[in-house]
């Protein structure tokens, strides 16, 4: 599998390839849907299932987080994959989502466990669409500004409210109850880098 090629060239602050299960991710001790190894972290999720993994290794200010997702889904599945930014905990976090079956992306915010939609679902031709595809997602955050790059192409900007004193980062992904079958989701690379001087992802075109 490819690495997080959508990432810029800023100093690498953190990288995870999931060859082993670092407890900083908060993994459950046993999970029959989960496997991991040289090819990354893989979950085979039944309809109406999800996983939320917020890494507890460090807090970050002004950073780029990027990840490579590979998805195998039923036709027209609502399966989503997401990068978590500006995280405090599961009840207070932003997430940037990709829906590989429909070619949509979005930005959601959980504030005190209430769901807000800073960027509602939007289609973009940079997303690799299909039942078996790989997508590389990069999110640059600098101050209150965020910038999204998918597969090396900038797709949009948004404004948010980062927590004081730095934020946690992570991933989450899941399926919907009408997906029609299990979905296999693999995270093969996760990186956090310093933001380039201009605050933009070096992967953006």
Overview of this protein structure:
The structure is a single chain. The chain has 205 residues and is mainly beta. The chain has a single domain, classed as Jelly Rolls. It has no helices and 14 strands. Strands 1, 2, 3, 5, 10, 11, 12 and 14 form an 8-stranded antiparallel beta sheet that branches. The radius of gyration is 15 Å and the shape is globular. The two termini are 22 Å apart. The C terminus is likely disordered.
Radius of gyration: 15 Å
Largest sheet: 8 strands, antiparallel
SS element count, helices: 0
Q: For the record, give the distance between the C-alpha atoms at the N and C termini, rounded to a whole number.
A: 22 Å
**Total strands:** 14
Derived from helix and strand composition plus strand pairing, the structural class reads mainly beta
Please mark out the parts with pLDDT under 50 across 5 or more consecutive residues, or reply none: 199-205
CATH class group:
Mainly Beta
